[in-house]
Amino acid sequence: MVKFLSCAISAALLSALLCLLYRSGLAVSKSIRALLFVYRPGKRSCKLSLDACTGWLSHAVRFPESRPYTFTLDARLSSGDAELLLLDRQKRPLLRLTPRTPSGTIELDAKSRCRLRWELSHATGQCELRW
Hints:
Elements: H1 2-24, E1 28-33, E2 36-41, E3 45-62, E4 67-87, E5 93-97, E6 103-108, E7 113-130
Antiparallel strand pairs: 1-3, 2-3, 3-7, 4-5, 4-6, 4-7
């Protein structure tokens, strides 16, 4: 009985820790199939290195101040396609960037938490998002 209780408490604490990391943006959810996939998030940019990558990646982002933000997608892809969606808390799209429409400006509130969602289709190359 004591082992069961300690396992249940450990599982609950681990779940709470993972939820906290995910909500703060330190944990990333993804469904990727690739030969090479490297994701490097930063405070004012995110970088991807890809080779034959298909799938999606979602990352929580908070913005430090309320103001208009200009997002620029620099997609240097030799093949495939990449799309970036900025989603609000209810997962509604606020902004959509592709290699054909690489920049956009949107007013964001410092209290809001957004998600960056990358959609990748047979993408090979590098992508960088700056704001």
